[in-house]
């Protein structure tokens, strides 16, 4: 029973140590690295550990098979973990770029997304006259009453139907969203069944080439332009809201987006909406709105990434343990000889740990390199808050690569600890006799 509880406490202590290491900020890691370097350079035990480490590293080519198990196992953990986190990072970055603090979106009170919101046509002129909304060069309010229709289009990959957001916008939408730029063709004409498509949607779905016609709501629509925006709008199709609404028998709009007038624009608009009993609407900056849309899925992706990474890390730890135990057993005479000529337990422990950490670092760099080369910029799509596909790119940032390297070193730390302690406790006489 004592052994069981002792082992359980050891495992818990290692888990806490590993979690603390992974959460350690960069300056904390740097401080640890500097402390170890100074110990290796300035103390007698450190110099002995350094020499013992050189002996162990020199023998790595003779143990390349076992060393490769550690490197490849840890590389796999880092590559998968980094890829999963890069997916969540890319999705969040795409939606974060969609909004800003200079524009606001209005929905029916209590609505969480455009799909369950209604703004009646008689409310639109009332909203447009509210204080806090900026005016364009023509003196008209920069506000766009919009609706969103989910349509099915065949995917480029396998032809299966996927949900795509077909957005109806007002004339002010272009001036309010200066990041939306036509790169092919032209804008749709007012009152015409014409569509402009986002570059992301064009790359992921069939039939969206310039000049093509689509049959939607039993009517023919012509693709007259392609736009780029660098945000989630690039996954959408745009048309005139006054044409899209009647085509789908929509008597009302779903949202209204407005450009804010200066720093106090949002406060003025929110206060005006609250004071008018005819307008039971919620208002948020577009940054907050799209940030909330990405929050749930980003958390889910990140949680899955950590869980999958942790499961793989456990396997990598056992691989490192087996390999290092085998390495210690194979070097029994060498370790016993070092112990006999004056190498104490601490230098031997440090030497085995540093050897394992070096292999872990190589695995981490390999996994990070694979994740960067294969996944950075890789384009995928997933369902967004409105149940339509959002096209985004994996984003392998330096912060994610750093996180992957910390995971690699943490695996090396745990995987090398017990073999290192065994090497330090190896009886000299038994090791020499067995050898």
Automatic annotation (TrEMBL):
This protein's UniProt keywords: Cell membrane, Membrane, Transmembrane, Transmembrane helix
GO-annotated cellular components: plasma membrane
Segments crossing the lipid bilayer: 25-43, 64-87, 303-328, 348-375, 400-421
Subcellular location: Cell membrane
Membrane topology field: Multi-pass membrane protein
Record-linked InterPro entries: ABC3_permease_C, MacB_PCD, Macrolide_Exporter_MacB
Pfam families recorded: FtsX, MacB_PCD
Residue ranges occupied by any ABC3 transporter permease C-terminal domain in the UniProt entry: 307-427
Location (main, coarse): membrane
Protein name: ABC transporter permease
Taxonomic source organism: Thermomonas aquatica
